[in-house]
Amino acid sequence: MITFFLNGQEVSEHNIQPDMTVLRYLRTRQSLTGTKEGCGSGDCGACSVLAGEMHNGEWHYRAINSCITFLAQIDGKSLITVEALANGSELHPAQQAMVDKQGSQCGFCTPGIIMSLTALFENTPSDKTFTLHEIYDALSGNLCRCTGYKPIIDAAKSMKSYPGKVKAEIWTPSSTSPSNKGETSNEEGQSWSVRTESELKEIIAHHPDARIVAGATDLALEVTQMNRRINKLVAINQIDSLKTISEDANYITIGGAASLTDCEKVLEAHFPEFAQLLERFAARQVRNNGTMGGNIANASPIGDAPPVLIALNADIEIAGANCNRWIPLDTFYLDYKKTLLQTGEYIRAIRIPRREACEHLKVYKISKRIEDDISAVLLAIKVKVQGGKITAVRTGFGGMAAIPKAGAAIEAALINQPMTVETFRKAGEKASEDFQPFSDVRATAGYRIQVTQGLLEKAALEILNPESVSRVEQIFTTTLSAKDVVNTYDPQENNNA
């Protein structure tokens, strides 16, 4: 039985399809149609809801995409939909601000936008105002196809002026945790939501063909976009040992089911360039659910995290019913969408060596849009410089081959060479020895090689001139005011604002 709180009331379900999404459940089982279906792939945000977990005796909520979240992942949680925001006749500040600032046009996307703004409002201390960056981050996963972004942003800015109650009464369920068993089945299959690794290993020992899911931000697309069925599903997003992030003298260790949002803080402290990349990793709703382990296991050649982790010499721990083993990440990928993971195995943890004082990490993502887009080329490079010489170097590339991989010839051309732009320029000439990239809708093979060469040169310039402003994000935030942002926006150039 899957049990959770829905708008403050305990709900139990035992006869559901294992691949039923939260969106489909809300609309067809609960008749809560305020949550809309737009894209069905986690891109537009019309389906956004709030999912809460109990921490230290209090419920904490985050916005997620209900269209790519399976119901099994909500077991034991508290779910809030747009119908529950008003406190009687009093609208939530996010709702009232959208009304007063005329933030809604056709209205189809409005419920999802309001849920994202609600998450921003509720997770910000009452005495703190929102920065423009925080507003953009909160709304990064919400598309308004009527292009009404300015009044929406105005609404976000004004939310603090409303005296609405923080976390209305309906947000506080009657108990701290629903009494659930975490298993459901029907004639089409079974699903489980497990709390411990021992439970997980017992299930996969008996059902090795079950699909293991933490965030489901990619796996759910098989259901919503490809019309495939998943007959056995094990949700592991409630296992504390897989969500733990720890540090010691030598490593930062990230649990395989730790969300990308939870990874951001520790990565910002140790690898700020990695944390900046995560800001361009899909949108906030996706990062709230998606996991580092899932991004690795997905084995996409254009996944954002694997090239950086390869450059950082990360190891991963693979676990199964009868085994646990650590391997270097760069040995994990065998071919396109093929890895060392065997049936019934999962990624338990990612271990990243601590950064040394003389090491520089540079990460570049080239895509058609700055935010919420898939990369054409991703380059990560870690360089150790001592006495003006490159004494160690490690690279990771995405979009350049069938798998994420390092550039061996490029690294060989850099090691023990002087730390100069010319050194990196010559190393770029080795790109075609390491890679024979493909051409697709995002870039041609020739473009990918040329971009790689330019990015290597850029890395040298940034390492040698650390105070230089050379990123689009930096120029945008350091030289333009919010007023400038609005005045320079040209809808003919970028419909996604």
The major sheet is characterized as: 5 strands, mixed
**First CA to last CA: what distance?**
43 Å
- Rg estimate, integer Å: 23 Å
Structure annotation, total helices: 19
Structural class, by secondary structure, is alpha+beta
Kindly state the percentage of residues in helix.
25-40%
How confident is the prediction overall: mean pLDDT?
90
Strand order of the largest sheet: 2-1-5-3-4
Shape: globular
Strand portion: 15-25%
Number of strands: 19
Q: Point out poorly predicted stretches.
A: 474-497
Protein model, in words:
The chain is an alpha+beta fold and 497 residues long. Helices cover 32% and strands 21% of the residues. The protein has 19 helices and 19 strands. The protein has helices at 22-28, 93-100, 110-122, 132-139, 149-158, 197-206, 220-224, 240-243, 260-270, 272-279, 284-289, 292-297, 305-311, 408-414, 421-428, 431-434, 445-464, 472-479, 482-488, and strands at 2-6, 9-13, 48-55, 58-65, 78-80, 183-186, 189-193, 211-213, 232-235, 245-247, 251-255, 315-319, 324-328, 333-335, 338-339, 346-353, 359-366, 377-386, 389-398. A 5-stranded mixed β-sheet has the order 2-1-5-3-4. Strand 8 (211-213), helix 7 (220-224) and strand 9 (232-235) form a beta-alpha-beta unit. Helix 2 (93-100) crosses helix 5, helix 3 packs across helix 4 (132-139) and helix 9 packs antiparallel against helix 10 (272-279). The longest helix has 20 residues, at 445-464. The chain starts with a strand and ends in a 9-residue tail after the last helix.
